[in-house]
Amino acid sequence: MIDVIVIGAGPAGLAGAIAANKNGLSVMVLDEFIKPGGRLLGQLHQEPSGEWWNGIEESKRLHEEAINLGIDIRLNVSVFNIFQEDSLWNVYTDACTYQAPFILLATGAAEYPIPIPGWTLPGAMSIGAAQVMTNVHRVQVGKRGIIIGANVLSFAILNELQLAGIHVDRIVLPDKSPLSKDAAIPEEVMKSLLNVAHLAPSPFLRAGSRMMKNVGMRKIGLRLFPKNGVNVNGTSLQLRKAAVEIVGKEQVEGVRVVDIDAQGNKISDSEIEYDADFVCIAGGLYPLAELAAVAGCPFEYIPALGGHVPIHSEAMETPLQGLFVAGNITGIESGKIAMAQGTVAGLSIANKVEKESKTITKKLNQALQQVQTVRQTSSIQFNPEINSGRNKMNNLWAAFDVNNSKNIV
C-alpha cells in the first residue's frame, strides 16, 4: 500500500518524497510534466557568494536520489481531483485512481497573465515560457526582445537569457489597468526592486539602490530617473515607459510604448515604437492551489504570500486530516526554501505515522530551523513582506482546533 502520494515533482515534492521515504514510508510522486524538477528546471543564477545555482543540476540530483531510494515517480500524469473517504485520499488522474492515507500537495505556482493588445501574436510569451524554452529546451526565443514588467522574476530570467546570448533590448512597464495594478506604477515598482538591490550588476547601482530605500530619496530618484533608462548588463531598464500594444502582422515586430508619470499615468504625445522579434510578459507568480480548494481546504488571502493560500502550520499540515502542503503553494519563495519546506512536510508525515517518534521529532525540529535559515539568507526574495505573511498564517493556524474541526475565529 502507498503511504504518501506527492502531487508535484518540483523541489518541494521531490524533497518531501525523499524525507518521507528515508523515514520508512512508501511514496509515489505524480507530475503532469515530462520531466521532474518543476520550476527548478529553468533556474540559473549566481549567489552573492559567487556560487552558481543551477536548477537543472539540482533537479537531477533530487531525481537520482529519489530513484535510488526506490520512490515511484510517474510523469506525464495529470491529477484533476482529490477526495477523502474513510481516512483514505482518492487521487483521480487521467491514468487511474490512486489511494493513500497521506497527500503532499507540492503543485507550485503559476504566472499572472497581463493582457496587452497583441499578446496572442507568435513571439509573445510569458517570461516563464522564455525561461523554459531557453534553459530546458535550449531553443532561442528570438534575437531582439523586450520584457514587459519589472519584477524579481523578470530580472532573474533576464540574467538567464543574457547568459544564453539572447539580447533583451529593454524592460518597460505594462499599461495601467485593473489587471496590471502596482506593476504599472513606477513608484511601486521601484520600491519592490529595492529588495533585489544586492543583485544589481555594479557597485554604483547597488549603492544607489540602498539610498533609494528612504521614501524621500526614492521620490527624488524617480523624478530624476533617466527617460532612456538605466543600463542593466546591456538591457535598458525604463521605469517611465509603459507598453500599450505589441505590434506585428503575422508575428511580433515591435512594441508601442508611451511615457508615464510616477503614478503610471500616460503623458500625451509621447508614443514611440521599438523593434523586437519577441516579447516576454512578466506579471509575477501566484500559488497554484486548485487541488487544495477541490479537497475542501480552507484558504486565506495573504498578498505577502502571493495571493490565496491554504491554511497550514509551520510543519506544513493543513486542517484536513492527512493533507500536507509545501513549496510555492504555501507562498511564493525560492526553490531552496521549497526544498526545505518539502523536507519538513515529509518528516511531518512520517512523524504522524510513527506517532511522534523522538528520533523523527528531532529531525523535524532541525528541518524547521533550516527553513528559517534558508529564508534569512535567500538571495532572491519575491516579496519583502514575506515574514509578516508567514506570521499571519501562523496566527491563523493557531486559531484552528484541528481535532475538533473548528473554523477560523
UniProtKB/TrEMBL annotation:
Residues 316-356 form the MnmG N-terminal domain. It comes from the Bacteria. Its cofactor is FAD. Residues 3-154 form the FAD/NAD(P)-binding domain. Keywords: FAD, Flavoprotein, Oxidoreductase. This is Sarcosine oxidase subunit alpha.
